[in-house]
């Protein structure tokens, strides 16, 4: 395509930019850890408040999540990925295809620095959706994103081809802000391939248009600085870099801040000013690490390794060389994968061309056969038959390998299932063995007592007091048999609860009400059995807690179990303080504190008691099946294990415990919002 360039008067010798550049020179370097600009923070906070509104439509939520991901991408790539994944999940759940395409594009941008292969796949999916939904803006955005990947891989032809297609769509949409970005990207690509005249032309076009629109120029100034530095205009390059640094800080764009810092460090290294080069390279490395920009970390650590080697500081050079090697291994490993995929793609194109050529050859052979006769036609048939047999043999070999692989996989899965079943069976047998042994032993003793009273060897001279003592012992034995039978029954009931795969429909539930109701039920239930027990109940419920989709009956069982455990810990500590060696009952006030809190993407329930607490050894096993700290016969050891499975497997949340022996315990339940 033809390129129209309107030169900016005095561009090479400051001209209209002189006052701007002088001001930027005076600003000097600022701290890379400056807080986000108020405008940007306000934007993210405003978007989050809109997202939290209960009457917000799901389609609007998808776009709000995408906008939050856009804002976070310049600061923390991992946070941007989290919101992009949320948008993608919601869009797919509600069947919002346009939103799915937007979310995929944001996810690809977040993945681009750590997994180029996956990023390219995601961008291509988004591009297909953009074409299917006739969304040229999203199509242009994906063309630009794919072009960036090919530029990363030093594929100039492919990268620029995608960039120019994105530019053409931006011009057709009359979207001048988009055109600014495309022009600057093209200029940066030409700079990477050392075509400096073309790089300067496109950056100057981008700069002129951005100034007219009042849009940011941080990337453009960096690109102009690169061109000036490579052309030997060092003072002008420094002014451009300073301008890029200042503007990047204003908009809190850590990625472009890394570019500008690394450009400034490279300039000072070129001038032989090693101290200044190290200063700016460190700032660039810090900005890239904060943002999660691995390529920026590589560029900065490479400069630092060279500078410290030049100064003879071996330790510092080794430190940054190690960081550089880690970044190279991560990035270049991904690039090898991408190059392989690119080669595979080209190989497919060549195969398609070969197939088309072969089809043409067959047609010619048929024509020749009509002229030459049966001999040529027979030779062609033999050739095609041989090729078909080879393909059939290859297909059969692949199918056999696949079948063997599936068989081996099934055997491994079955082996793991059997191993787990064996461990579970052994645990059940071990737990049931204790109460059954008690039942057996007490039954044998009871039989001997019955024989003692009414058997053949009964002593006729025995007085009635001894008989009453025997009958009392027999009654006590029968009570023990009943007690341990109930113990075996509770173990079996607990295992049946543990084996449930989960029933019930999730419904939006007011967690504050559910937690409060479960706390009262657990407390009243224990008070019914232990009338002398009392404790202070303190609640702190978040009024902004959103409704959460849960199976309320099942989650209530988990909460009641946690509250009951807390009350038992209070009782145990009460008994300790009431003992002769304790500090006295009046010095201890039992208390259970319950709180709820809304967090980004989740809700949190905390249940804290000031009971006996637990040791590290007990805490490590607290969620294991059949593990209990209660006296024999008072617990099955399945309550917390079952609660853990319900929260994690059944609801996709987490159940954690924090405890200090002698001070108390806190259980923390988190559920996805």
Task: Provide the descriptors you would attach to this structure in a database record.
five-stranded mixed β-sheet; 673 residues; alpha+beta; 22 helices
Question: Helices, strands, pairings?
Answer:
Layout: H1 18-27, H2 38-52, H3 58-73, H4 77-94, H5 97-111, H6 116-132, H7 136-152, H8 156-172, H9 176-192, H10 196-213, H11 218-230, H12 234-250, H13 254-271, H14 274-291, H15 294-311, H16 314-372, H17 374-454, H18 464-499, E1 507-509, H19 511-529, E2 536-540, E3 548-550, H20 552-578, E4 591-599, E5 602-609, H21 616-621, H22 639-650, E6 654-660, E7 664-672
Briefly say what this structure is:
The chain is built from 22 helices and 7 strands. The protein has 673 residues and is an alpha+beta fold.
What can you see in these coordinates?
72% of the residues lie in helices and 7% in strands. The protein has 22 helices and seven strands. The chain has helices spanning 18-27, 38-52, 58-73, 77-94, 97-111, 116-132, 136-152, 156-172, 176-192, 196-213, 218-230, 234-250, 254-271, 274-291, 294-311, 314-372, 374-454, 464-499, 511-529, 552-578, 616-621, 639-650, and strands at 507-509, 536-540, 548-550, 591-599, 602-609, 654-660, 664-672. The protein has a five-stranded mixed β-sheet. A two-stranded antiparallel sheet has the order 1-3. A hairpin with a 2-residue loop joins β4 (591-599) and β5 (602-609). The longest helix has 81 residues, at 374-454.
- For this structure, the quaternary state is single chain
Helix count, per DSSP?
22
- Helix fraction, binned, reads over 70%
Major β-sheet annotation: 5 strands, mixed
Q: pLDDT under 50 segments (min length 5)? A: 1-41
């Amino acid at each position: 395509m033809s390129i129209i360039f309107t030169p900016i008067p005095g561009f090479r010798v400051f001209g209209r930019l002189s006052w701007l550049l002088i001001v930027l020179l005076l600003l000097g370097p600022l701290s890379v850890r400056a807080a986000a600009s108020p405008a940007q923070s306000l934007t993210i906070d405003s978007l989050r408040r809109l997202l939290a509104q209960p009457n917000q439509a799901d389609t609007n939520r998808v776009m709000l999540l995408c906008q939050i991901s856009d804002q976070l991408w310049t600061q923390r790539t991992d946070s941007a990925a989290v919101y992009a994944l949320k948008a993608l999940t919601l869009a797919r759940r509600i069947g919002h295809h346009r939103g799915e395409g937007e979310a995929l594009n944001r996810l690809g941008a977040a993945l681009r620095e750590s997994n180029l292969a996956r990023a390219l796949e995601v961008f291509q999916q988004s591009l297909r959706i953009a074409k299917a939904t006739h969304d040229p803006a999203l199509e242009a955005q994906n063309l630009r994103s794919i072009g960036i990947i090919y530029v990363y891989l030093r594929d100039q032809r492919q990268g620029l081809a995608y960039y120019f297609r994105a530019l053409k769509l931006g011009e057709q949409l009359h979207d001048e802000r988009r055109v600014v970005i495309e022009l600057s990207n093209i200029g940066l690509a030409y700079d990477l391939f050392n075509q400096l005249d073309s790089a300067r032309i496109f950056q100057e076009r981008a700069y002129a248009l951005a100034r007219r629109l009042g849009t940011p120029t941080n990337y453009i100034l960096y690109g102009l600085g690169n061109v000036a530095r490579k052309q030997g205009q060092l003072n002008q390059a420094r002014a451009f870099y300073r301008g890029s640094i200042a503007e990047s800080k204003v908009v809190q764009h850590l990625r472009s801040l890394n570019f500008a810092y690394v450009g400034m460090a490279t300039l000072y290294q070129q001038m032989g000013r090693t101290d200044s080069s190290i200063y700016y390279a460190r700032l660039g490395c810090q900005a890239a690490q904060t943002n999660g920009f691995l390529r920026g970390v590589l560029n900065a650590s490479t400069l630092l390794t060279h500078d410290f080697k030049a100064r003879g500081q071996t330790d510092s050079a080794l430190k940054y060389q190690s960081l550089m090697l880690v970044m190279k291994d991560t990035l270049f490993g991904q690039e090898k994968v991408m190059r392989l995929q690119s080669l595979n793609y080209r190989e497919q194109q060549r195969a398609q061309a070969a197939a088309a050529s072969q089809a043409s050859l067959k047609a010619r052979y048929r024509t020749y056969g009509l002229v030459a006769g049966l001999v040529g036609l027979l030779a062609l048939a033999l050739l095609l038959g041989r090729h078909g047999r080879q393909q059939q043999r290859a297909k059969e070999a692949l199918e056999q390998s696949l079948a063997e692989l599936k068989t081996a996989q099934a055997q491994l899965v079955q082996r793991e299932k059997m191993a787990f079943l064996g461990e579970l069976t052994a645990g059940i047998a071990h737990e049931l063995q204790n109460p059954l042994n008690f039942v057996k032993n007490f039954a044998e003793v009871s039989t001997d007592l019955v024989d003692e009273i009414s058997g053949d060897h009964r002593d006729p001279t025995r007085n009635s007091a001894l008989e009453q003592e025997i009958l009392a012992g027999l009654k006590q034995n029968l009570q023990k048999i009943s007690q341990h039978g109930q113990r075996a029954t509770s173990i079996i009931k607990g295992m049946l609860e543990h084996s449930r795969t989960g029933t019930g429909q999730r419904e939006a539930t007011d967690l504050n009400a559910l937690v409060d109701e479960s706390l009262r039920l657990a407390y009243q239930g224990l008070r019914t059995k232990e009338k002398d027990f009392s404790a202070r109940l303190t609640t702190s419920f978040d009024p902004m807690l959103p409704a959460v989709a849960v199976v309320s009956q099942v989650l209530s069982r988990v909460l009641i179990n946690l509250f009951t455990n807390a009350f038992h810990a209070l009782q145990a500590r009460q008994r300790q303080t009431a003992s002769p060696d304790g500090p006295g009952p009046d010095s201890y006030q039992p208390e259970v504190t319950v709180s709820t809190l809304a967090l980004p993407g989740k809700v949190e329930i905390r249940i804290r008691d000031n009971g006996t607490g637990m040791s590290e050894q007990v805490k490590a096993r607290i969620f294991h099946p059949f593990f209990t700290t209660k006296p024999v016969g008072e617990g099955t050891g399945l309550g917390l294990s079952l609660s853990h499975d319900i929260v994690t497997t059944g609801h996709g949340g987490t159940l954690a415990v924090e405890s200090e022996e002698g001070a108390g315990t806190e259980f923390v339940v988190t559920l996805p919002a």
